[in-house]
Amino acid sequence: MISIVPTAEIGAMWQYLQPWLEAPVALSNGRFTTQSAYEGLLRGEFQAVFAHHNRAVDAVALTHLSEYGTGALWCDIPLMGGRDMATWIAPAMMAIEGWAAYNNCRGVQPAGRPGLEKHLAPLGYVPMARMWQKDLSDA
């Protein structure tokens, strides 16, 4: 089952969501911390979508509605983590796409490691670009 956590419920749900965000946060190279994700959720800046069964959380994705210079609104998924992705990715993406359409987004753009592509391609997602980074914090 897939659910979107109402902003008012973030505090009560955080203990179940946070563990699944630790790995993607660690890969964000300082762009996110679990604390910054939590604060963004409390402010309504991010939305939490989670997969669950038998009262256990299996995965969490954070979405963010981003308006670009053209006025186009896109639903970004900057953080996604969980177990057994094949069991929840399709229904999670359908829920996120519904959320995005409800908010008049032009599309959905998830970010993730290269292995995510094999799960997203059958759902109609195509890779559009690659991102490179050079960390200057130690320079």
Question: Which features does this protein show?
Answer:
5-stranded mixed beta sheet, alpha+beta, Aminopeptidase, 36% helix, 4 helices, 139 residues
Would you give an account of this structure?
The chain has 139 residues and is of the alpha+beta class. It has a single domain, classed as 3-Layer(aba) Sandwich (Aminopeptidase), CATH 3.40.630. The chain has four helices and five strands. It has helices spanning 10-26, 34-43, 85-102, 116-120; strands spanning 2-5, 47-53, 56-67, 73-82, 107-110. The protein has a five-stranded mixed β-sheet, sandwiched between helices. Helix 3 (85-102) links the parallel strand 4 and strand 5. Helix 1 (10-26) packs across helix 2 (34-43). The longest helix has 18 residues, at 85-102. It is globular. The mean pLDDT is 94.
